[in-house]
Design a protein that fits this description.
- An eight-stranded mixed beta sheet has the order 13-14-12-15-11-16-17-18, sandwiched between helices. Strands 1-7-6-9-4 form a five-stranded antiparallel beta sheet. It has a five-stranded antiparallel beta sheet with strand order 2-3-10-5-8.
- By secondary structure, the protein is α/β, with parallel strands linked by helices.
- The chain has helices spanning 26-32, 81-93, 102-111, 167-170, 192-198, 204-227, 250-264, 281-284, 293-296, 304-310, 336-346, 363-371, 383-398, 422-429, 443-450, 454-457, 462-483, and strands at 45-47, 65-67, 113-117, 122-124, 132-138, 141-148, 151-158, 163-164, 178-181, 185-191, 237-242, 269-274, 313-314, 320-323, 352-357, 374-379, 407-412, 435-437.
- It contains 17 helices and 18 strands.
- The longest helix is centred in the middle third of the chain and has 24 residues, at 204-227.
- A hairpin with a 2-residue loop joins strand 6 (141-148) and strand 7.
């Protein structure tokens, strides 16, 4: 793996080993990633199973899939008050319906059609026409694609509150994947006619649904390609992106650095959004999240790995993203223990893991900073930023034992001309800058509004050039560390 080296830290200064609780490397890691959930896309190659009984929309209702109380779509589906209340609570938890007001959710609740699927039955089949979305009320389902005769690829595992078949609500294309019930399942179904009769045409929910459909169609090739990858024998290299001051452009730079790394290693770079309580990485990346790390904390322990891996989003540019929360109130569910449990799974499935950290110096932020191989600290040319970053660097050295060799210091010029010069920054912080990002005008804001990542769409912009330099530093230091065969803890890079 020949990667140009833009910055070589003093390896003797890298303290370690720093071991994330619950992770393994080497042969043990390879063994642990050869099972059902061998990578973050939930993908695996296996022989095609024997044909399973399946139900096709418009074919009637043969067992073992039973549609209960299916209406003719001209009248609400009947249900007891308790049943309608339960449906309403389920819809509240479905990500694409977050923006709908209660009255619309109540109307949808009355028109959802309950169904059941016996274990082993195929609920939808790749290549079939369809006009119905399914919401999992209970049980577990497997989403898979037949890549070639005799081989299928599992691309997702679904549990309660997950949904599938949403593409058929927007497009009249045939099903792009098959779904099989791994357990006896209770489902709720929503067809295209009911959706458009119930939800206003200008609703944000329809916009989000359309965006999600395009997102999943675009990422299907990435999922299939990921199935062919061999699990890494070494743990991922981890990079924490942090700034003690808000407005530094941290999330934008974290997204662009992750995307720049993914250009080199498609499908092998994960961005974890731990900027709490509000996550913006998915918004900037024009991705629609349907799951998150916080939600994974609420599932039974045996389903935790599925929940974490199933929440990962795939950007067409090759980057992957794991939201921390979908709603601000879920931030309390994110704990140090939860992050450690998730890292025990994720660290063996990626080449690089990038963290976008919030401003608050919480236990979670401290833990991630302490365990990351590299810490990218952003500073802006302002007196308040210099003061905060200066204090932060003192904490790194005197409290957390994060030596300067692990820190990448980047200056992000947010204004065209500042009274604080680059030389002032270096003199005040007593540490050289690795990268200076020039003022880029309104390009970052315009890219966010358009749903674009600048490093992918405008490589000549100042932000793109700076992000590429930072990615080169990270990849270059990884190559150096791998060549030096550092033992123990997180291993920088892979052979």
């Amino acid at each position: 793996m020949a990667v140009p080296t833009g910055f070589e830290p003093a390896l003797s200064a890298l303290t370690g080993p720093r071991v994330w609780p619950g992770y393994t490397t080497g042969p043990a890691a390879a063994k642990s990633t050869n099972g059902l959930n061998s990578n973050p896309a939930m993908v695996r190659l296996r022989p095609s199973p024997q044909p399973s009984p399946r139900w096709r929309e418009g074919d009637g209702d043969p067992l073992p899939i039973i549609r209960c109380g299916v209406s003719d779509n001209d009248h609400p589906t009947l249900g007891s008050p308790e049943e309608l209340r339960r449906r309403f609570q389920i819809l509240e938890r479905v990500a694409i319906f977050f923006t709908l007001p209660d009255n619309i959710l109540h109307a949808l609740s009355r028109r959802l059609a309950p169904a059941s699927a016996a274990r082993g039955s195929v609920i939808v089949h790749q290549g079939d026409p369809g006009d119905t979305m399914f919401i999992v009320e209970s049980g577990r389902c497997e989403v898979y694609v037949e890549e070639s005769p005799g081989h299928t690829i599992t691309i997702a595992l679904m549990g309660p509150d997950d949904f599938f078949g949403e593409m058929s609500l927007i497009s009249e294309e045939t099903r792009t994947a098959s779904v099989r019930a791994l357990e006896d399942c209770r489902l709720l179904t929503l067809d295209r006619k009911t959706l458009y009769e119930t939800v206003p045409a200008d609703s944000d929910a329809l916009i989000e649904l359309t965006k999600l459909v395009e997102q999943r169609k675009d990422t299907l090739p990435n999922l299939i390609a990921r199935a062919r990858m061999v699990a890494p024998e070494q743990a991922a290299s981890t990079v924490a992106v942090y700034s003690p001051k808000g407005g530094s452009g941290r999330t934008t730079i974290a997204v662009n650095v992750a995307a720049a790394l993914a250009k080199r290693f498609p499908g092998e770079v994960l961005l974890i959004d731990l900027a709490l309580p509000y996550n913006h990485a998915a918004l900037i990346s024009y991705l629609t999240p349907t799951g998150c790390l916080a939600a994974a904390s609420q599932v039974p322990p045996q389903n935790f790995e599925e929940a974490v891996l199933g929440a990962i989003l795939h950007h067409p540019g090759g980057m992957m993203l794991l939201p921390g929360v979908l709603r601000a109130e879920q931030a309390d569910l994110i704990t140090v223990d939860l992050v450690n449990r998730a890292m025990g799974i994720l660290v063996n499935a990626f080449r690089y893991i990038v963290f976008d950290l919030g401003v608050a110096f919480t236990d979670i932020v401290i833990s991630v900073l302490d365990h990351s191989q590299r810490v990218l600290v952003l500073v802006t040319p302002e007196l308040s930023s210099l003061k905060d970053v200066g204090e932060l660097l003192n904490i790194f050295t005197n409290v957390l034992n994060i030596v300067p060799g692990r820190v990448i210091l980047a200056l992000n010029n947010k204004v065209p001309k500042s009274v604080v010069s680059k030389e002032d920054v270096v003199r005040t912080l007593k540490q050289e800058l690795a990268v200076e990002i020039d003022f880029d005008g309104t390009k970052p804001d315009e890219a966010a509004v358009k749903g674009e990542i600048l490093v992918l769409t405008d490589p000549k912009s100042a932000l793109s050039r700076g992000s590429e330099q930072l990615a080169q530093i990270i990849a270059g230091s990884t190559a150096v560390e791998t060549k030096g065969e550092k033992k123990g803890g997180f291993k920088l890079g892979r052979r």
